[in-house]
């Protein structure tokens, strides 16, 4: 169990503290929802957590197989619903892999990415679009 603390700072801003490490971060409501947009919004963190989880679990698999993933990145776009209730409707992720791997390795990493704990925790109506970019393949 991991304990965290979220404290409202006023003006639609919160400070989140991570219990084990003591690290903190600030959230702010987005400009299109009465905020200043000066930091990650809570929904930005949700979408970013999905991307971080994908790379983390892919990294675990890569370590187990001896594959190099250093420099892998995800360019991520969060799309909010246009109708009520306000929610994340879609997360588009372009996963850029730094090294060419054989077809078996690519298949394993792509399958693993789709099974990360955050992906499995989100509502099934949320569209999670993954596009992999492998050097020399696409």
CATH-defined fold name of the largest domain? GMP Synthetase, Chain A, domain 3
* CA-atom Rg in angstroms: 17 Å
CATH superfamily of the largest domain: K homology (KH) domain
Strand order of the largest sheet: 1-2-3
Q: Give the CATH class of the largest domain.
A: Alpha Beta
Number of domains: 2
The percentage helix is 25-40%
Question: What class do helices, strands and sheet pairing give?
Answer: alpha+beta
Strand content: 25-35%
Largest sheet: 3 strands, antiparallel
Order of helices and strands: EEEHEEHHE
Architecture of the largest domain, CATH level 2? 2-Layer Sandwich
Give the mean pLDDT: 95
Question: Poorly predicted ranges (pLDDT <50, ≥5 residues)?
Answer: none
The total count of helices amounts to 3
Terminal CA distance reads: 41 Å
**Total E-strand runs:** 6
Shape: globular
Which features does this protein show?
138 residues; globular; 29% helix; three-stranded mixed sheet; alpha+beta; GMP Synthetase, Chain A, domain 3
Overview of this protein structure:
The protein has 138 residues and is an alpha+beta fold. The protein has two domains: 30 residues, no CATH class; 92 residues, GMP Synthetase, Chain A, domain 3 (2-Layer Sandwich), CATH 3.30.300.20. Helix content is 29%, strand content 30%. The protein has three helices and six strands. The chain has a three-stranded antiparallel beta sheet with strand order 1-2-3, with no helix packed on it. Helix 1 runs antiparallel to helix 2. The longest helix is centred in the middle third of the chain and has 24 residues. It is globular. The N and C termini lie far apart (41 Å).
């Amino acid at each position: 169990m991991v304990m965290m603390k979220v404290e409202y700072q006023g003006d639609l801003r919160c400070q989140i503290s991570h219990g084990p490490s003591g690290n903190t971060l600030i959230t702010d409501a987005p400009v299109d929802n009465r905020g200043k947009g000066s930091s990650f919004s809570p929904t930005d963190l949700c979408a970013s957590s999905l991307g971080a989880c994908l790379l983390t679990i892919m990294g675990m698999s890569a370590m187990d197989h001896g594959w190099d993933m250093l420099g892998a990145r995800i360019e991520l776009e969060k799309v909010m619903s246009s109708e009520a209730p306000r929610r994340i409707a879609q997360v588009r992720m372009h996963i850029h892999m730094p090294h060419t791997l054989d077809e078996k390795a690519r298949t394993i990493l792509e399958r693993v990415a789709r099974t990360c704990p955050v992906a499995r925790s989100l509502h099934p109506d949320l569209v999670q679009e993954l596009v992999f970019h492998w050097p020399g393949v696409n």
